[in-house]
Amino acid sequence: MACCDKGLRHPSDNMVAGMAAWLAVALALLGASAQLDLDCAKPERARALIDYAQLSEIEQVEDIHRDELDKALARCPSGAKREACRTELRRRADLDWDRKVAEIKARYQKMHRDFEERCRASIVRS
């Protein structure tokens, strides 16, 4: 607890804060996706709504991602090792960003497929 007495933050504090932010976004997006009004009678509108939700999620995640990167870059040491630190953090952040965007896109592609299948099934039943 010596770190806390001196007003310093433990490295895990950043991880917990980041996880809390991701959890909040994930819960909000799960609620949003469950509440999307995907009407088979208006497929163009439903598809546009899915696309809008995807774009919105990507933008939210991008804001969080950029903030986390900025904070990490600020922690790089000054001096000769600073640029190497910043380069490595950016490299890791780029890989992480690519993974996050791929996960989001896959989830919304599945939402598109599920919508199309549900609508086809409702036509068959009619």
- Regions with pLDDT < 50 over 5+ consecutive residues? 1-10
Largest sheet, strands/sense/barrel = none
Q: Could you state the order of secondary-structure elements as H and E?
A: HHHH
- How big is the Rg? 21 Å
Structural class designation:
mainly alpha
Percentage of helical residues? over 70%
Report the span from N to C terminus. Answer: 67 Å
Number of H/I helices: 4
Query: β content, as a range?
Result: under 5%
Q: Give the overall pLDDT as a whole number.
A: 81
Domain tally: 1
* Number of beta strands: 0
In one word, what is the shape?
elongated
Summary tags:
126 residues, mainly alpha, 4 helices, elongated, disordered N terminus
Q: Any overview of this molecule?
A:
The protein has 126 residues and is mainly α. 83% of the residues lie in helices and 0% in strands. The chain contains four helices and no strands. The model is unreliable at 1-10 (pLDDT under 50).
Summarize the structure.
With 126 residues, the protein is an all-alpha fold. Helix content is 83%, strand content 0%.
Q: What layout of secondary structure does this protein have?
A:
Elements (H helix, E strand, L loop, with lengths): L1 H4 L5 H25 L7 H32 L7 H44 L1
